[in-house]
Amino acid sequence: MQHTATTGDWIILKTMPDSAETASLVTQKVAGVLLLPNEQQNSEWETTVIRQYRFGYMHYAADYTAADTQLNIILISPALTKKLNQGARPVVDIRFKQERANGYNVIAHLPGTDKKLKDQTIIAGAHLDHIGRLGNHIYNGANDDGSGCVALLAAAKTMARHPTRRPLQFVFYCGEELGLLGSR
């Protein structure tokens, strides 16, 4: 599929550009792509937004695109899509706020009993953070981070009383929900 655009223009697409289309758009020096939601995203918009925020399911770069390729892709809402379909002309004004925050991982180490296996550490982990509130929904975090941390603490307590041959590390990650360094 060929797209022609003037340098600095935003273009509207119905599907994510593949790597060849992305390269073409970068060569044309478009400002970016306004991506219309597909049928599933349109019908489950809140879920789409939550997935984008929480899990990074939606990667706004075509697969196999070089890391230094810069193409801004914005998935727009069904409400804006409706206006575009009615002939509205979008004006894109992107503003962002960069914040720095510290998160702290907690690591506990239990040595193993077999010195020959000292370099074969077994690592178990769980994450401490959760989203809290997103939109009109509250995500209390009890099912994944709460239960995971309790299970990890119970395992660490049991293993401290019953040492294993290999060393163990119990890692509690912060920043997992946002995919921050240390959580992967």
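(the above was protein one; protein two follows)
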Amino acid sequence: MLGGMVTLYHSVRTRQPSVMMTQGPILRYCPACQHTSRTPLLYHGSRYGHVGGFECERCGARVSMVDRDCYPPVQYFARQTPDGPTVPETILYEDLYHINEPDFRQVERWTGLTLLRQEDEKALAFEPLVVQVADEVTRRALPLQTAAFSLPFVTWVPEPFETWLNLYATLERA
């Protein structure tokens, strides 16, 4: 996987416990032409809010990405010409990938597994959680479903999120 494991941070010290992605693949998406490249970018936080940028392979727009200084969401800004209008789009990957705290709690209810410990405030490796849920789905002999994406311009998601979303869809329909 693109440079290593996906890491999440589970926070329980806030009023509302949360999970956020601190490292993992995100989409190389252009809001100007709504093209999503099949090559993801590795998100690993930001430097003063700047996540990175790229040139769209379809329309040539310059796409810049920012976050809230290592906090979600990721905002995309595309400009096809230096003096042209800027086209924005915001993606909350925790929602798109179903990796919010309530999503994990729902999977726990469906499976009986403990994925997040209430007293733990720590970084988590995501892939072992996916394996744990996949093993439970296999043990139950559930037919794997294909997930639908929550954003109309998203046509694919990178691994391990595709597997996670398919497992989520499978459990949701079981």
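Reviewer note on protein two: Residues 126-139 form the longest helix (14 residues).
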